Amino acid sequence: MNDEPHLSRLFRHDPTQLLAPRSAWSKSFDDFIGVYSVSIVFSIDGRSDESYELIWDAPMCERAFWLSPNGYEIRELPDFEPATMVVICPDNTHCGFYSGGCLWVDESHRGQGLGAELVLAMSEALEASPTAYHGGLGFTRAGLDAHFNAWVRAVIRARDAGNSLDASILEHALTVAGHVDSPCP
Fold first, then answer.
1. pTM score of the predicted model
2. What is the spatial distance between Cα 162 and Cα 5, in angstroms, rounded to a whole number?
3. Who's near 13: CB < 8 A, 6+ residues apart?
4. Which residues of 9-39 are buried (b: 16+ CB within 10 A; e: fewer)?
5. Other Cβ atoms within 10 Å of 131 Cβ, number
6. Could you tell me if 109 and 127 are in contact, meaning their C-beta atoms sit under 8 angstroms apart?
7. Phi then psi for 88, rounded to 5 degrees?
8. What is the pLDDT of residues 74-119, one digit of tens each?
9. Angstrom distance (rounded) from CA 33 to CA 132
10. Distance (Å) of CA 128 to CA 46, 104, 125, 141
11. How are beta strands 36-38 and 137-139 bridged, if at all?
């Protein structure tokens, strides 16, 4: 049974602030991500797979959950099961989502850290790791890297904001980060 909560609630932060949910930076990466395996069999095509058509057509929250300096937004799909966040491009079209453990960013928008920001947005909204409500997840290498980069970003942002971090967590994040966008070791 999936006990994943609904996201619909008041947003508690300024959407222009960098996301650094406590559920990410207060734990080691292994504790944040939980049980997982990596294989190409977990690959999805968020554009052509009929399973995801509802995401592209669903009404979304009018207020952005996160805004990037270059015009991307992350918004919630209210009343959507499972809890879902979408990325909106500067031209106001959808270009990615995180839904029920499935993370997708259109190929033309990859390499900008949008997957990591989706992971952080979902972590912030759920007040837990987005993988916490699943008995283990399967990732492609790129999906695992997005979750890893999200964790590294959260740890570094928490440090930069003056939060007190476990020394071993900070050391690990700083050691593996070429700052961010590092492949998961």
1. 0.86
2. 29
3. 19, 124
4. eeeeeebeeebbbebbbbbebeebbbebebe
5. 21
6. no
7. -110, 130
8. 999 988 888 899 999 999 999 999 998 899 999 999 999 999 999 9
9. 8
10. 24, 20, 8, 22
11. parallel
